[in-house]
Amino acid sequence: MSSPTPLKVGVLLSPTTQLMDVAPLDMLGMIDKFYARSYPEHIAANALDIEYYFVNETGESPHSMTGGFKLAVTVSALLFPLMIPPCFRKVVSESETRRLTTLQHSISTCPPLDILLIGGPAPTYRPSEAIQHFIQTQYQHVRHLLTICTGYIPALYSGVLDGKTVTAPRGLLPMLKEEKPDVKWVEKRWVRDGKVWSSGAVANGMDMMACFMKEEFKEQGALTEMALGIADFARRGEAY
């Protein structure tokens, strides 16, 4: 996948979203143009231009997550200069460090996305009508919808998983098969059905993202392999 315009990647934050559920986004960040500056030039040449959108229902920021972590609800094109690691500063110009956009985004102001990642809320969470409408609308535009762990819940109640093959946390699958028969539930670490990618437990989001990157960014193959190698990522298949 390549595009002359920035790839818009959004993360929908629900109440009590688990931090590890959105952590796989950092793997994708390892093949964007900013991070790739530390790679050899011939590897970095195919890096992606990515804009990241962190969105919640109201736009209120910061958004509280598990572990006491608070995440800014923003769109970020580049980081603050003081946040740039020393190893990157030599390759990032002063003008580029000022390329920062911090706009608080709610579901009503978020633009159409290319990729929407939904991290997992508490299992008892039920999305509002506004959240459901947001997912339904974005689903018409996105190239890929990724749900991690209980991130399937907002997507499920939005109706975009009907008729799809989907996975979820293993302990919830018997209940889901009985109560939500319009979805084909499978017991796997992750599964893809068209533009819908879903993962099982929270750690399986990493497994899914690695496969997603390799399948969807073939032009960045060498870059992806370098990123996964640097991260010392353990390769695990779909089957438990």
Number of helices: 10
The largest beta-sheet arranges its strands as 5-2-1-6-7-11-10
Taking the alpha carbons of the first and last residues, their distance comes to 29 Å
Helix content: 25-40%
Counting helices, strands and paired strands, the structural category is alpha/beta
Mean pLDDT: 85
Which overall shape is indicated by the principal axes computed on the Cα atoms?
A: globular
Order of helices and strands: EHHHEEEEHHEHEHEHEEEHH
Question: Poorly predicted ranges (pLDDT <50, ≥5 residues)?
Answer: 76-103
Defining key terms:
alpha/beta; 10 helices; two-stranded antiparallel sheet; globular; 11 strands
Structural account:
By secondary structure, the protein is α/β, with parallel strands linked by helices. It has 10 helices and 11 strands.
Write the layout of secondary structure elements.
Blueprint: E1 7-12, H1 19-22, H2 25-29, H3 41-44, E2 50-55, E3 63-64, E4 70-71, E5 75-76, H4 86-89, H5 94-97, E6 115-118, H6 129-141, E7 144-147, H7 152-158, E8 165-166, H8 173-179, E9 184-185, E10 190-193, E11 196-199, H9 204-216, H10 221-230
Parallel strand pairs: 1-2, 1-6, 6-7, 7-11, 8-9
Antiparallel strand pairs: 2-5, 3-4, 10-11
Helix pairs in contact: 6-7
What would a concise description of this structure say?
By secondary structure, the protein is of the alpha/beta class. Helix content is 30%, strand content 16%. The protein has helices at residues 19-22, 25-29, 41-44, 86-89, 94-97, 129-141, 152-158, 173-179, 204-216, 221-230; strands at residues 7-12, 50-55, 63-64, 70-71, 75-76, 115-118, 144-147, 165-166, 184-185, 190-193, 196-199.
